[in-house]
Inverse folding.
């Protein structure tokens, strides 16, 4: 029996996982902005990725048609998600796998922990997975006496540094080579004290550290970029090959996948395997694309499990506007073009999903009030919409969630009072004309409004006060 069914509009539970921050975005961002090394690291990394991505996208004459196709497929998936998930479950089961349904992070962690414990192993190797970060699986495994070992290089850096991911694609983007070298020297057993910060040397040290772990660990936990409903095939794309070691060597393979990752057919998968690498890493195709379908006797894992994770996704699906966020293929293109992310970094968002997509996905998974500051963590410049390979209208979602936050307030806020006053003024011509004349007094506030007294001075921290014209249109019209 399962306690999960689609259409259950429950948000992700509090106290487990990494969807909620300890402080609002403005406070966390202010601290990040004061770190010059962090800003240099982010600027260098995002600029490099943007340039690579733009170059390979320019090579694809049908890029816009691919984007249209990706958006259409995702919209189709959301419109019949229950049907496709049942089809996926049947296909995985026919192929020898076992499907588990997890209503939330608590249930998913329990399922995975019990499956690992049943193997008798006290260690599990992991493929990079946003879903397992979302639910806090590493902490759940450790609480059960099981050591999780991240095998993706960036995730390993984060784990050894007792840190948190700050980017969807490059979790250690906030670290430079010198910092990574110090982490390896301090935390990696058996590392050469003469290790340099050369990228090849750092990768070789990680490879040596992980090699024996791959050979000695009988159970692996993975995520999934996509799942094909018609065949039950799961797919993981990566750049290093460590994921493929996790997917082939262990006896038991457990995959945790958000329910929105399903695609109907192999032809649909083809579209995303063209979109994802160009938008994410700036490559024509992923160096390692691994696919597996159930169990093949004598080849690869002989126990294959798929955990289908809801954790608030049904609540997102129930919102006809907000469900666009579930179209995300985790390419990180929106992060790499976002001026807010480039300056504040991923940790400021508090959630494992940072940047523009995190600002619209996390509040919906948790309920807007638990992440009320994130929809405001944007200038609404629209760069994210232009970059998204599946055309998620992130600015529209940000405005939608801001409206939801305002509507949820049980008492009037300063903003709602100001907007109500403005609406009343504009609805009364004589009052509006008087307000125009009074607006000339704002010249006393100084250039750009920097001379406004508190609490109005807070408004001018992140925006300029418009300078009123020397003559209003009404006065100009009256003279003529």
């Amino acid at each position: 029996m399962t306690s999960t069914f689609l259409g259950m509009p429950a948000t992700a539970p509090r106290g487990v996982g990494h969807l909620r921050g300890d402080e609002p975005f403005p406070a966390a961002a202010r601290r990040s902005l004061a770190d010059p090394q962090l800003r240099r690291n982010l600027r260098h990394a995002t600029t490099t990725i943007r340039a690579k991505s733009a170059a390979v996208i320019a090579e694809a004459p049908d890029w816009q048609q691919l984007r249209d196709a990706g958006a259409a497929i995702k919209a189709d998936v959301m419109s019949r998600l229950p049907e496709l998930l049942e089809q996926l479950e049947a296909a995985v089961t026919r192929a020898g796998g076992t499907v588990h349904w997890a209503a939330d992070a608590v249930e998913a962690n329990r399922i995975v922990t019990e499956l690992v414990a049943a193997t008798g192993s006290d260690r599990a190797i992991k493929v990079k997975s946003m879903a397992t970060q979302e639910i806090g699986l590493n902490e759940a495994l450790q609480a059960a006496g099981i050591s999780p070992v991240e095998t993706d290089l960036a995730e390993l850096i984060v784990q050894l540094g007792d840190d948190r991911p700050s980017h969807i694609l490059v979790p250690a983007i906030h670290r430079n080579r010198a910092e990574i070298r110090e982490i390896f020297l301090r935390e990696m057993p058996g590392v050469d004290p003469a290790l340099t910060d050369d990228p090849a040397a750092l990768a070789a040290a990680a490879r040596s550290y992980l090699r024996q772990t791959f050979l000695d660990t009988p159970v692996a936990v993975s995520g999934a970029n996509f799942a094909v409903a018609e065949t039950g095939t799961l797919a993981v794309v990566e750049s290093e090959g460590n994921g493929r070691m996790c997917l082939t060597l262990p006896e038991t393979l457990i995959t945790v996948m958000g329910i929105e990752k399903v695609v109907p057919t192999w032809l649909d998968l083809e579209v995303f395997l063209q979109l994802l690498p160009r938008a994410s890493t700036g490559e024509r195709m992923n160096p390692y694309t691994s696919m597996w379908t159930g169990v093949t006797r004598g080849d690869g894992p002989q126990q294959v499990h798929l955990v289908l994770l809801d954790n608030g996704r049904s609540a997102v699906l129930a919102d006809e506007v907000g469900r666009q966020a579930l179209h995300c293929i985790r390419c990180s293109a929106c992060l790499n073009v976002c001026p807010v992310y480039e300056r504040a970094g991923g940790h400021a968002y508090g959630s494992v999903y940072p940047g523009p997509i995190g600002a619209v996905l996390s509040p919906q998974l948790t309920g807007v009030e638990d992440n009320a500051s994130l929809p405001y963590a944007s200038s609404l410049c629209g760069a994210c919409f232009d970059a998204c390979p599946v055309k998620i209208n992130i600015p529209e979602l940000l405005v939608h969630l801001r409206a939801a936050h305002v509507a949820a307030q049980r008492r009037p806020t300063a903003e709602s009072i100001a907007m109500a006053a403005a609406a009343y003024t504009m609805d009364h011509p004589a009052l509006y004309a008087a307000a125009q004349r009074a607006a000339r007094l704002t010249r006393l506030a100084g250039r750009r409004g920097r001379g406004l007294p508190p609490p109005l001075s807070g408004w001018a921290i992140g925006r300029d006060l418009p300078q009123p014209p020397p003559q209003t249109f009404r006065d100009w019209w009256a003279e003529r």
